User: Which sequence fits this backbone?
């Protein structure tokens, strides 16, 4: 069966500097993978490369989503096809209403799928359900996107958006950083609730603690732009205990 | 266009002071004074260094007349209304209960709308800027008279042919009152000038919403509109003021609004400069009473070679007054803008709290914005903050929106609307919002 995400020998340059240097990663449908690694190892670059951010130039290898090469796709094409990125630093957009923005996003995806657009009433009902489910402050959905939100509120807003948009594959880029234990649980629950045989998740994290709540099928260690170690939950536990020092040499190198 | 000596220009302007008008002698003195002080300001004048209007001095203006202009009714709910066409009343004004709305011709202005000087001289609420130098605002070491000496104000005071006045009785809530000035027609093919004059008075504890509109088309690029609005807000009164200019034709529009605030008075002012013009608006707020506050906001949306300048002057002449300024511009093509924001905290005005923010969004390489904060603080125990930004659309925000499935163009549009939205969202008037949206749609299309 075609994996959901298939990355082979991926090379990505940012401002002329090679950050990802031949990265291989396969995530089958139904699985949740975690990527850990020290600062500067390329974790966020991988997230942006998957989401299609301008300036993250793919110079080699391939990036496939459900068997299709998406390397040349615009970010919105990827989103409509079912890829979601929960940002490490969600952007504040003063003047753009959260609900309006999310409704537009949902309807773009529905249009892409050939489904009828949701009207205001249906969309509000959907929002209300998720706001309750995720224990999100209902006042915040009426405010401009992320404007004046606390760090935790921004991360919750990412999970709210993910829940409403129902992506097939989601990348969570250090969504746990800066969260207290309650917020962490909400983020983890938000993902756990969505896990299904059709969906996949890539969880980028610095800390093992998120993986207590969000148990991954596999854990990969990223170092200097490559996966240097892969394994089960025990990898994360060992990294937590020993740090990144040991996982230096690429596997099989 | 023939160049002519200043003396000619003065004689021509003096001849245009409406004969038989109340205080016509005083009005002639304004015109004389205007020329004595140097006439039309040029870039050499400090307050006009970004763009002078010296070229206006070489144009042989006639006052515009009403012509046969038909005025479309303003959509939306209004409690009161006064309409001027070509500077004179076009139809009877409409007054809601407790509010007096009048439109008038200069030769038949209702005198009791105006103030008298202590010596009994009629002061048709014109020379406020001069009066201020004499009255209690005066502080040693502070040349307030210079702050208020706006040359084009003097010309309006001398040459207005008509205007409209609103007086809201104490404790009354006026509902929305419209003051509309429609450009009219150039007389006999000569370039037309128009000097409408508005007076707004809120008696103590009253509330009012005033929507001032300048519309119509200039027949040529030599056209000029020079409106002036003087607002007095009594103690504890609150005013919501919207100024909308949508004139087209590429002429010049130089307007002023001056707010005088008594104790605990409040004003929220929103200036939407949407016209396709060479545009300048000066908003002045003078805190005369303790605890008064002003929120001054403005938006310019420009494309092509349009220009708009927003100049503000906030005078903290009383203690514990609060001023907030937020001015924005969205610029496409080679549009230009200037924000010149002056805050003066007079000696003794302790507890003053002033902030000022100017943000400019450039949608093309050829667009330019210039921002100049001027803070002059003569008191202790004062909070004063200012910030300015000139930039392109935020790439992070664009990617964020696109990563949720919004198209690249839709994302740009949403960001532009969001940028302007901060100014527009507080505007209740539906027509003003529609016009702003239309202006934004026009510049958005060019920014791509």
Assistant:
């Amino acid at each position: 069966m075609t994996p959901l995400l298939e990355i082979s020998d991926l090379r990505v340059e940012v401002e002329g500097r090679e950050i990802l240097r031949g990265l291989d990663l396969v995530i089958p449908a139904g699985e949740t993978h975690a990527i850990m690694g020290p600062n500067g190892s390329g974790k966020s670059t991988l997230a942006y490369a998957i989401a299609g951010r301008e300036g993250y130039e793919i110079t080699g290898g391939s990036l496939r989503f459900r068997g299709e090469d998406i390397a040349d796709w615009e970010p919105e094409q990827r989103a409509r096809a079912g890829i979601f990125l929960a940002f490490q630093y969600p952007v504040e957009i003063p003047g753009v209403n959260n609900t309006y923005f999310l409704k537009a996003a949902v309807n773009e995806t529905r249009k892409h799928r050939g489904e009828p657009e949701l009207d205001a009433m249906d969309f509000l009902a959907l929002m209300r359900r998720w706001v309750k489910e995720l224990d999100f402050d209902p006042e915040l959905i009426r405010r401009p996107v992320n404007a004046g939100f606390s760090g935790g509120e921004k991360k919750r807003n990412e999970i709210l958006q993910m829940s409403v948009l129902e992506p097939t594959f989601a990348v969570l880029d250090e969504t746990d950083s800066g969260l207290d234990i309650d917020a962490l649980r909400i983020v983890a629950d938000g993902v756990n609730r969505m896990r299904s045989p059709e969906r996949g998740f890539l969880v980028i994290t610095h800390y093992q603690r998120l993986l207590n709540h969000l148990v991954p099928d596999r854990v990969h260690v990223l170092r200097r732009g490559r996966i240097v170690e892969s394994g089960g939950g025990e990898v994360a536990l060992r990294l937590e205990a020993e740090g990144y020092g040991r996982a230096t040499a690429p596997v099989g190198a | 266009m023939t160049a002519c000596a200043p003396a000619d220009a003065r004689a021509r302007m003096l001849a245009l002071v409406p004969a038989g008008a109340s205080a016509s002698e005083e009005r002639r003195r304004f015109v004389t004074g205007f020329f004595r002080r140097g006439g039309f300001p040029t870039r050499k004048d400090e307050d006009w260094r970004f763009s002078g209007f010296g070229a206006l001095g070489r144009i042989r203006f006639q006052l515009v007349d009403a012509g046969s202009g038909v005025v479309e009714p303003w959509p939306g709910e209004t409690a009161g209304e006064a309409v001027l066409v070509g500077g004179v009343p076009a139809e009877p004004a409409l007054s809601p209960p407790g509010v007096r709305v009048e439109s008038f011709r200069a030769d038949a202005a209702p005198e009791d709308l105006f103030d008298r000087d202590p010596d009994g001289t009629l002061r048709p609420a014109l020379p406020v800027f001069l009066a201020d130098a004499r009255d209690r605002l005066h502080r040693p070491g502070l040349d307030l008279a210079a702050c208020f000496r706006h040359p084009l104000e003097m010309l309006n005071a001398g040459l207005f042919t008509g205007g409209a006045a609103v007086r809201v009785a104490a404790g009354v809530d006026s509902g929305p009152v419209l003051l509309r000035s429609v450009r009219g027609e150039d007389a006999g093919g000569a370039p037309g000038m128009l000097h409408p004059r508005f007076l707004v008075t809120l008696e103590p504890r009253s509330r009012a919403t005033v929507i001032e509109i300048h519309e119509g088309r200039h027949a040529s690029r030599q056209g000029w509109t020079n409106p002036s609005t003087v607002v007095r807000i009594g103690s504890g009164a609150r005013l919501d003021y919207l100024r909308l200019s949508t004139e087209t034709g590429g002429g010049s529009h130089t307007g002023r609004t001056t707010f005088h605030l008594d104790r605990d008075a409040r004003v929220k002012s929103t200036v939407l400069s949407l016209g396709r013009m060479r545009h300048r608006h000066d908003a002045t707020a003078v805190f005369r009473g303790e605890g008064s506050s002003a929120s001054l906001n403005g938006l310019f949306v420009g494309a092509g070679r349009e220009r708009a300048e927003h100049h503000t002057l906030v005078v903290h002449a009383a203690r514990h007054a609060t001023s907030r300024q937020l001015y924005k511009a969205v610029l496409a093509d080679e549009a230009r803008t200037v924000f010149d924001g002056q805050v003066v905290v007079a000696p003794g005005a302790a507890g003053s709290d002033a902030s000022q923010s100017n943000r400019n969004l450039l949608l093309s390489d050829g667009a330019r914005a210039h921002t100049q904060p001027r803070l002059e603080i003569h008191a202790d125990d004062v909070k004063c903050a200012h910030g300015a930004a000139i930039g392109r659309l935020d790439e992070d925000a664009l990617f964020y929106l696109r990563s949720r499935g919004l198209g690249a163009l839709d994302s740009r549009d949403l960001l532009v609307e969001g940028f302007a939205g901060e100014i527009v969202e507080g505007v209740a008037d539906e027509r003003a919002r529609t016009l702003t949206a239309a202006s934004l749609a026009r510049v958005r299309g060019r920014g791509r």
